[in-house]
Amino acid sequence: MSWAWFHRFASPPWVYGFAARWTPWFGGAALLAMLWALYAGLVLAPPDYQQKDAFRIVYIHAPSATLSMAVYTTMAIAAAVGLIWRMKVAHAVAAACAPIGAWFTVATLGTGMLWGKPMWGAYWVWDPRLTSELVLLFLYFGYMGLRAGIEDPVKADKASALLAIVGIVNIPIIHYSVTWWNSLHQAPTRLLGKADMVWPMVWPLLLMFLAFFLFFGTVLLIRLRAELLRRERNASWIREVLA
Amino acid sequence: MSEFLSMSGYGKYLWPAFGLGFGIVVVIYVSALSSLSRARQDAKRRLEMQS
Q1: For A108-130, how does the pLDDT look when each residue is reduced to its tens digit (9 = 90+)?
Q2: Which of residues 131-170 of A touch B (CB under 8 A)?
Q3: What's the DSSP call for residue A1?
Q4: Does B34 touch chain A (CB under 8 A)?
Q5: So what's the ipTM on this one?
Q6: What three-state secondary structure class fits A52?
Q7: Residue in A164, A130, A89, A30 with CA at minimum distance from that of residue B28
Q8: Residue B17 to residue A110: CA distance in whole angstroms
Q9: Does B30 touch chain A (CB under 8 A)?
Q10: Domain boundaries in chain A?
Q11: Environment class of residue A101 by beta-carbon count within 10 Å: exposed (0-12), middle (13-18) or buried (19+)?
């Protein structure tokens, strides 16, 4: 098997061009999918027999929660690739992920609180799922703080990569917290196969998941270009792309 | 329309949740664009100083 395609991702000018070419496609697809899913979730999906229309918060809460964990996983994998293969682009990907993931975590906690109040009677409880998600937010803050606190970019890459890799242990804790411990938070909902929800409720949610992943792709590509411009400021290819 | 906005009495939780969620989506997008714009300006300034 040829690894030539993988080696291209180690080249900052190639990755910069790739990101610039693909950003509008990801962005356009994300916008279309998001608008369609929003309409379907708010208008077409039937109300839940127990939670009534409050269940519709799932269309913003569940994709945010999934992305908060998916972005961290991407960040940790990129950090590991950066450490093992000393790929500057991988460290740039990890650095670009952090603020995006932190914002998705804030969205998860905020929308979850607004769902918790009518369902549980409280905005916040020190439940395993909520607490581990809050720990995720602190991990993102720690990663960004560590990067900002070390002046030497190589040392900052290494130290923050180690933190990202160690912090990955929190991802399965978040995911399985509702089954490992007694939790107010509902257990994972099956969306495919023997689904826990009817199809008219499921497809707008799947579409919103797709929209959020496409949106993550869009903003990651934008932030990656910014990160590469900062890191490669003395490289000759910068002059060509800015011309 | 008022029935839709009421969301069977849960509108006061549902609309702020959607406002917060999609507000953050906008913030993520705008901050990414602003980060790229700053990086481009810094790079251009550096190139001008070199030449």
Answers
A1: 999 999 999 999 999 999 999 99
A2: none
A3: -
A4: no
A5: 0.94
A6: strand
A7: A30
A8: 7
A9: no
A10: 21-242
A11: buried
